[in-house]
Design brief:
Blueprint (H helix, E strand, L loop, with lengths): L2 E8 L1 H13 L4 E6 L19 E8 L4 H12 L6 E6 L4 H7 L4 E3 L3 E4 L11 E4 L12 H12 L6 E5 L5 H8 L4 E5 L3 H13 L6 E4 L9 E7 L2 H6 L1 H6 L1 E13 L3 H8 L3 E3 L3 E3 L2 E8 L2 H4 L1
Parallel strand pairs: 6-7, 8-9, 8-11, 9-10, 11-12
Antiparallel strand pairs: 1-3, 1-4, 2-3, 5-6, 12-15, 13-15, 14-15
């Protein structure tokens, strides 16, 4: 089915209202994009990331009277739109295009992330079946890759693990497939917890992975805690996460921009002896070993 795109160029305070009006007008999909190449690294939790110059796009069937639609939007706003453009969207078999964008990826020596429609390139390797979905985390981002490579190099065989901010469950599942005795996958988003459950079943490790909201975490300290979230939450959670790691246990932190690394490291040094950071594409992974309790008192 052919489509038309209506692109509206606006300011962030108007973007949400325009999106609602596009939805009321029958848009099949609505997206927000940066209209001026402005980086946006860390939106507040629960908010929609918007830029100083925001592009709001509505997708409509090709037969839609777009001029009339624009006129209606202007009447609702009681003023002309600041900028807009109508563009055809090339008809493609989008499901195939989407699938072709995700190929098996190797992390370290033997850990692979494979979409379900691909045969594993190395059947005898540690292959994790994971399809892109609602929850973040398929291994394509540098922060996730840094954590997966660490797990491949340091298999948590026989250890109890926490994956804090589990998203799709990719790190929890990797830890379980690499021999972890038990993994607690923690997230604030119910969709992330459901995605983790589903992916654990798909990979045959549901018996070793439990999911929980942060306030429901009651487990005893673990030998490994991984938190691939963002710098500010990591700083705010430093004492809580440190309390979940056993003496001489390991913490692995990611989701940190290079310029944020020292501030995060400072927040964790009272409890951990930190190694030299690992860096990829301006993102940093920190790791440290928990100091004995007497050394932190």
């Amino acid at each position: 089915m052919p489509w038309l795109q209506l692109k509206l160029y606006t300011h962030p305070e108007q973007a949400q209202t325009l999106a609602e009006r596009l939805e009321e007008a029958g848009a099949a999909a609505i997206t927000f994009q940066d209209g001026a190449d402005q980086p946006l690294y860390e939106p507040a939790p629960g908010t929609t990331p918007l830029w100083r110059h925001t592009e709001v796009t509505g997708l409509f069937p090709a037969g839609t009277d777009m001029e009339r639609l624009v006129s209606g939007l202007e009447q609702q706003a009681k003023q002309p739109l600041t900028g807009w453009q109508i563009l055809p969207l090339e008809e493609k078999e989008w499901s195939r295009v989407w699938m072709e964008g995700f190929q098996p990826m190797r992390f370290g020596e033997r850990l692979w992330i494979c979409p379900s429609w691909h045969d594993p390139p190395e059947p005898d390797a540690v292959n994790i079946l994971l399809d892109p979905g609602l929850a973040f985390g398929t291994g394509t981002h540098a922060t996730t890759a840094l954590c997966l490579e660490w797990l491949d190099a340091h298999p948590p065989a026989g250890k109890r693990v926490i994956d804090y901010g589990c998203g799709s469950g990719i790190l929890a599942i990797a830890a379980a497939r690499l021999g972890a005795e038990h993994v607690l996958a923690v997230d604030t988003d119910p969709q992330a917890l459901q995605a983790t459950r589903d992916n654990a079943v798909k990979n045959g490790v549901e018996d070793r992975i439990r999911v929980a909201f942060p306030d429901d975490v009651t487990t005893t300290p673990v030998q490994l805690l991984m938190a691939n979230i963002l710098a500010n939450p990591l700083i705010d959670l430093a004492d809580r996460l440190a309390a979940r790691v056993a003496d001489e246990g390991t913490i692995v932190l990611s989701g940190i921009l290079s310029e944020q690394a020292e501030e995060v490291a400072t927040a964790y040094r009272p409890w951990f002896s930190l190694a030299t950071p690992a860096v990829r594409d301006e993102w940093v992974r920190l790791e440290g070993v928990r100091k004995p309790a007497e050394a932190t008192s």
